């Protein structure tokens, strides 16, 4: 059987990850490039095209002709419009306002291009080849600078009416709480993203709590990171342990409510923060039970993603196969 190849691209704020894969999910080539977001929109687009050309070249070395390619999927920050192929706004990419990315890439590459939201793509990738490959109903949260989300229902991405569903970072977990980048107060992202953890740590340090975090940042509070908070927690620092516990509680509130609504088989956590491992997963698993119905939550697995930062590119490729009804 002649397996059809497809390309998936994950457009991140720092890196562009590209994957050449076939319909069976065999990865044929991987490429990555710096996004160079600060150099502007045109530079970023040329980096995407460069990444695609690198993959096509490596494909040709493997005897795969570009004519056989089913298409290119691009996982991009949003909000975006899949049908029109437009990215309305990308918070981490300066100058990206109403960019008709699908048309631009199509004109340049002469291939079918499909757009998908980056966190939806990560969820689809984990569903296809990662932690979620044995289930059909899952929720994914990416825990990084912000919190992104993807929802898979019966094996399909849930997009909502305007491709904006699953903004899971912006569910409110504390009325009147800390201000979020979206303008609302009390969003999950404001508390439980890496940025949120650092903000809460700084606030606690200002109040004079005794903590080794002060030594770890060598009296430079600007150098405080979420990793350092987890490191301090591993060294049994009581403030850091409390901050991690609290992060687990906030995630538990959010995930518990989501589980009540969606009754998933699995909740996948991905992104930089999951490097903390059980230190983070244990409190999440414990607290989630307090904030959801027992009959629902006792069957939900809460697990780390297994595809790392390739989930988005793999999912973007899967989005092409979904569009073509091949997956
Ligand atoms: Zn928000």
The N- to C-terminal Cα distance equals: 17 Å
Uncertain segments are none
How many domains, in number, for the residues? 2
Largest β sheet strand count, sense and barrel closure = 5 strands, mixed
Q: Could you state the order of secondary-structure elements as H and E?
A: EEEHEEEEHEHEEEHHHHHEHHEH
What would you call the shape?
Answer: globular
Oligomer: single chain
CATH architecture of the largest domain: 2-Layer Sandwich
Q: CATH fold name of the largest domain, please?
A: Nucleotidyltransferase, domain 5
Radius of gyration: 20 Å
Name the strands of the widest sheet in spatial order: 3-2-1-4-8
Strand content: 15-25%
- CATH class of the largest domain, anyone? Alpha Beta
| CATH 4th-level superfamily of the largest domain | ATPase, nucleotide binding domain
The kinds of small molecule bound in this structure are: zinc ion
How many distinct helices?
A: 11
Structural class: alpha/beta
Task: Average the pLDDT over all residues and give the rounded result.
Answer: 96
């Amino acid at each position: 059987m002649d397996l059809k190849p497809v390309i998936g691209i994950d457009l991140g704020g720092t890196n562009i990850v590209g994957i050449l894969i076939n319909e069976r999910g065999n990865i044929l080539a991987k490429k990555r490039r710096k996004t160079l977001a600060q150099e502007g929109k045109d530079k970023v687009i040329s980096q995407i095209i460069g990444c695609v050309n690198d993959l096509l070249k490596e494909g040709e070395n493997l005897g795969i002709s570009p004519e056989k390619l089913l298409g290119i999927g691009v996982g991009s920050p949003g909000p975006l419009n899949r049908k029109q192929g437009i990215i309305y706004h990308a918070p981490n990419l300066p100058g990206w306002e109403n960019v008709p990315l699908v048309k631009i890439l199509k004109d340049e590459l002469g291939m079918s291009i499909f757009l998908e939201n980056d966190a939806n793509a990560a969820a689809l990738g984990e569903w296809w080849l990662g932690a979620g490959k044995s289930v059909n109903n899952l929720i994914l949260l990416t825990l990084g600078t912000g919190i992104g989300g993807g929802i898979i229902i019966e094996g399909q991405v849930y997009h909502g009416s305007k491709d904006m569903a699953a903004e899971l970072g912006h569910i409110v977990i504390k009325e009147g709480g800390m201000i979020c980048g979206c303008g609302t107060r009390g969003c999950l992202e404001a508390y439980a993203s890496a940025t949120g953890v650092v903000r809460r740590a700084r606030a606690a340090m200002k109040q004079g709590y005794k903590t080794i975090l002060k030594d770890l940042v060598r009296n430079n509070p600007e150098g405080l990171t979420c990793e350092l908070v987890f490191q301090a927690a591993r060294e049994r620092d009581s403030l850091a342990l409390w901050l991690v516990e609290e992060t687990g509680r906030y995630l538990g509130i959010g995930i518990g409510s989501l589980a009540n609504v969606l009754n998933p088989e699995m909740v996948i956590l991905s992104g930089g923060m999951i490097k903390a491992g059980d230190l983070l997963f244990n409190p999440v698993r414990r607290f989630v039970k307090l904030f959801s119905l027992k009959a629902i939550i006792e069957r939900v697995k809460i697990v780390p993603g297994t595809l790392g930062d390739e989930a988005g590119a793999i999912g973007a490729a899967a989005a092409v196969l979904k569009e073509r009804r091949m997956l």
